[in-house]
Amino acid sequence: MLTVSGLSAHYGSSQALFDVNLTLEAGRVITLLGRNGMGKTTTINAIMGLVPPSGGEIRFDGQVLNGMAAFRIANLGLGLVPEGRQVFPNLTVKENLIATASNHLKQSEPWTLARVLDMFPELESRLGSMGNLLSGGEQQMLAIARALMTNPKLLILDEATEGLAPLVRRRIWEALAKIRATGLSILIVDKNLHDLLKLADTHVVIQRGRTVWNGSSEALMADAELRATHLGM
Predict the structure, then answer these.
(1) How many domains in the chain?
(2) Which among 65, 105, 152, 155 is placed 20 to 30 Å from 182, CA to CA?
(3) What are the pLDDT digits (tens) for 152-165?
(4) Pairing mode, if any, of strands 202-207 and 154-158?
(5) Residue 196 lies in domain
(6) CATH number (domain holding residue 71)
(7) How confident is the model over 158-214, as pLDDT tens digits?
(8) Which residues have C-beta within 8 Å of that of residue 85, sequence separation ≥ 6?
């Protein structure tokens, strides 16, 4: 479904990515791992068309994404849950959910308002609340639900549980497991390796803008030196 080959990217004259490679098959879950500042968010932004690649290739469902506008990439079926949630602060929860809702890809079992509220019942009593009045956990649930309402083929989450209380993090991981069970492909960045190992099929480790390792959860758990060197664990 998604192939990133030899990806490089710059912010002005500063190069952030040098050689990032990953492959995600349909219906699978893949993680991007690495210490802070290693290029994970830049990789996601390049995939979404928010940072123009300066080299390499990004291909989704057979189409090359390089040079494509961000809204066109989203319309191909990529749904982003950005770092920091970025809900619309001056819209209500319901307005956040329906503002970008669509099913132009004609998904057979689409995500609807009722379906996302069933996934996140905490939001139902908050439908009339403004986005900026929600707790951090509620905002993260809203950000995930909003992305699902676009009915994507691939859900991308950047720092899925950052800054959340333990009970809220558990709710997010439970929801992601249910989302995965629907067959939706997921690309995820997070620091909680324990939960990522249970959720994902494949892990990609990035060091200073380069892919330095990829493999299964079992292989990652077996390589203590790798975790200590690149993940600080």
Answers:
(1) 1
(2) 65
(3) 999 999 999 999 99
(4) unpaired
(5) 2-86+143-231
(6) 3.40.50.300
(7) 999 999 999 999 999 999 999 999 999 999 999 999 999 999 999 999 999 999 999
(8) 136, 139, 140, 142, 143
